[in-house]
Design brief:
elongated, mainly alpha, single chain
Amino acid sequence: TYGYRRITEQLRRGEWVVNHKRVQRLMRLMDIQAQIQRKKRRTTNSEHDFPRYPNLVLDLEIVRP
């Protein structure tokens, strides 16, 4: 997703002298918007009746590799 910040940086790397506010204004005039990244939905249902087991690895002492 390319927003005004990322486009401004790309233009500056291409040796253009631009201000981020100008890029933002021009993008608004041309009706160009970055797609907003949505949060991923959690599909796991943790409210089940299955037993929960303790984490045995937490108390594990590693002696050698």
